[in-house]
Amino acid sequence: MINLLLLPIILPFFFAVILLFFKEKIVAQRIITFVSLIISLIASIILMATIKSDGIQTVTLGSWPAPFGITMVSDMLSALLVTTSIVITLFVVWYSFSSIGNERERFYYYPAVLFMLTGVNGAFTTGDIFNMFVFFEVLLMASYVLIVLGGEKKQLRESIKYILVNVISSALFVITIALLYSVIGTVNMADIAVKVAEVGQPGIITVIAILFLLVFGIKGAIFPLYFWLPGSYAAPPMPVLALFGALLTKVGVYAITRTYTLFFIHNTAVTHELLLILSIFTIIAGCIGALAYFDLKHIMIYNIVIAVGVILFGVAQMNDNGMTGAMYYLMHDMIIKGALFLLIGIIIAITGTSNLRKMGGLMKTHAPLGWMYLVAAFGLAGIPPLSGFAGKLLIAKGAFEAGHAWGSIIMLASSLIVLLSVIRIFIYAFWGEPKLDEANQSVSYRNLMTPAVLLVILSVAYGVGTEWLIPYMTDASDVLLNPSMYVDAVLKE
Amino acid sequence: MEFVMAIVIGILFMAAVYLILSRSLLRIILGTGLLSHGAHLLILTMGGLGGTSPPVLAEGVTDYVDPLPQALILTAIVISFGVTAFIIVLFFRTYGELKTDNMNLMEGNDEHD
User: Fold this and answer.
1) Phi-psi bin for A316: left (phi > 0), alpha (psi -120 to 50), beta?
2) Which residue windows are transmembrane per the record (chain B) (predicted)?
3) Kindly report the CA angle at A253 between A251 and A257, in degrees rounded to 5?
4) What angle do CA A242, A248, A251 make, to 5 degrees?
5) pLDDT tens string A114-144
6) Angle ∠(A401,A407,A409) on CA atoms, nearest 5
7) Which of B38, B86, B113 is opposite residue A154, by nearest beta carbon?
8) Closest Cβ opposite residue B98 in set A148, A156, A163
9) How far apart are the CA of B106 and the nearest CA of chain A, in angstroms?
10) Which of A146, A164, A227 to mutate to test the interface with B (most CBs of B within 10 A)?
């Protein structure tokens, strides 16, 4: 089963190609997409079990020996991220059946989703820095299609900005790889780690490290590079926003985590200190945004920014607790953001607006939605035993151990602001007198509720089952903290 | 030779930044094109220019140029070609819909569309 780790990348790609032949047959498209995601999910779960029992899996394409061929590496972190991405995509696709609309379905919505999943899984799995650029482009290209699909005025206006930002950051990515190549002379990530360690990270490599932070920071939306995110993410329809919010920024976060734990670990006084400061500013900027808006979408989008800050704050600690917490919080955030975006998508579908001031009284008409939203909101804020708690606890513990007490106090205070921002949605949308038009009362929301409710239940299970999941998270953080494990798995066949 | 290339790349980046900072969308797109050209030349130069040596290792050849930057630049060119084609089509659609190519007029949010 040596090619097992390629399956989560190849399967969505293969089925996406098949889907291109059934443009008009919407039912066939739905069935094939759903089945392909289930098959990919099974493959990724088997992969995770294999990694748990046998350690890191690697494949070098074309059987070229390791530093020369393109290597694909699946450690526990990659496998967890791949599995979570497929789960989120599965539920979002299910939700799309009854919300995205026939027009978009007929114009290659599902193939674009699957192509994007190919790129996301590839970026999580690859062990070659240039190959990571290629997979970034795959997922970006699919995301360009998704963000502009439908061609509404607002979408066109915002997607131009989204694409320009990403084209420029891709050019920066190529420039950074070129500079790294001129200094180190390899693009294989394990080989880079070895050679950076050999030369002991002189100043030029620290500069390259900061360039990488810039490149991935634009994709991952850290302070002050998140400026493009709120406008662009608010433009596409809700399922696309849920996919982007749950997956795309996390690819940037993963890339920062990988490069900052594998390559640039010899001058942490500069690089990781910078990452720490930026992550705290990211949290603060996200909090300000989350409180400033009365628009459902914008409030949730700024919550993405806060979560990116929290995860990177955990990564920047570079110790056991901080890293395990960051990994735990990363998966938690993907699931809970998916769930919350689907739920507020339902609220927007029912009320017909995303402006909080124009809604009210949904509790009288749609009580189950209210309760589900409340559970998800508490989960996001990290109220025990829901899923945000364990991650934040570990990150705070790690930060105190590393002597960053102030940072962890700010991070913990941000939980309160997160809670305030989501509860504000609850108060405005669910309390008070109903403001619904008669026309909107008839909107059937049962089909939309099923995937959203299942995702909320999954996040609750993730919180309650912390004890069983921690071994997987420690496996993931072990590889990050001991780069030699990664290097040995790739270079010593 | 590397020195000349460095100046060429610098001029490309300079022109690209100038164009990207302008208001007209078409100029910005041209700027991104120049930016990626600069990046591609940078890859090629960073691998070391080999003069007339062949980029393959064959029997009896001891002096060969690093083939990897050429593989990388090829991939990067194809990708930037695809993205540029996409963005130009998108520009065309946006221009048709919004009747402007001035980025200053493309601001706005939900409340003031």
Assistant:
1) alpha
2) 6-21, 28-51, 71-92
3) 115
4) 145
5) 999 999 999 999 999 999 999 999 999 999 9
6) 90
7) B113
8) A156
9) 6
10) A164
- Which portions of chain B are predicted below pLDDT 70? 55, 57, 108-113
* Predicted local distance difference test score (pLDDT) of residue A435: 73
> Which chain B residues are within 8 Å of A231, Cβ to Cβ?
109
- What predicted TM-score, i.e. pTM, was given to this entire model? 0.94
A382: left (phi over 0), alpha (psi -120 to 50) or beta: left
Q: Residue A438: is its pLDDT beyond 60? A: no
Share of chain A above pLDDT 70, in %: 98
pLDDT bucket at A98, cuts 50 / 70 / 90: confident
So what's the pLDDT on residue A329?
A: 94
Least confident residue range of A30-34, A395-399, B64-68: B64-68
**Could you give the residue ranges of the DSSP H alpha helices within A384-431?**
388-401, 405-430
pLDDT at residue number A60: 87
The CA-atom distances, in angstroms, between A227 and each of A56, A212, A221 are: 37, 18, 8
Mean pLDDT computed over A21-33: 90
In whole angstroms, give the CA distance from residue A454 to residue B7.
58
Task: Tell me which of A212 and B108 has the higher pLDDT.
Answer: A212
From the list A137, A151, A174, the residue facing B43 with the nearest CB is: A174
The continuous run of DSSP H or E covering A58 comes out as: strand A57-60
Contact A171 B35 (CB under 8 A): yes
Domain residue spans of chain B: 1-49+66-100
Buried b (16+ CB within 10 A) or exposed e, A374-398: bbbbbbbbbbeebbbbbbbbbbbbb
Say if the Cβ atoms of B97 and A164 lie within 8 Å: no
For residue A66, CA distances in Å to A55, A126, A181, A358, A492 come to: 17, 13, 17, 59, 8
Residue B112 has a pLDDT of 46
DSSP class of residue A247?
A: I
Q: Do B109 and A175 touch (CB under 8 A)?
A: no
CA of B5, closest CA in chain A: separation in Å?
14
- Closest by CA to A169, choosing from B42, B7, B11, B32, is B32
Q: What is the pLDDT of residue B113?
A: 43
Residue in A141, A167, A181 nearest the CB of B46: A181
Nearest-CA distance from B93 to chain A in Å? Answer: 8
- Contact list in A for residue B108 (CB cut-off 8 A) is 154, 157
Measure the N-to-C terminal CA separation of chain A; round to a whole number of Å: 16
Query: 10 Å Cβ neighbour count for A448?
Result: 25
- What is the four-CA torsion angle of A120, A124, A129, A135, rounded to 10 degrees? -20
Q: Is the pLDDT of residue A1 over 50?
A: no
C-alpha distances in Å from residue A200, one per residue of A64, A203, A464:
28, 10, 43
Q: Which of A68, A131, A175 to mutate to test the interface with B (most CBs of B within 10 A)?
A: A175
Q: Is B87 at the interface with chain A, CB within 8 A?
A: yes
**Which CA distances in Å does A368 have to A119, A373, A442, A452?**
36, 8, 16, 11
Task: For B100, name the nearest residue in chain A, comparing CA atoms only.
Answer: A157
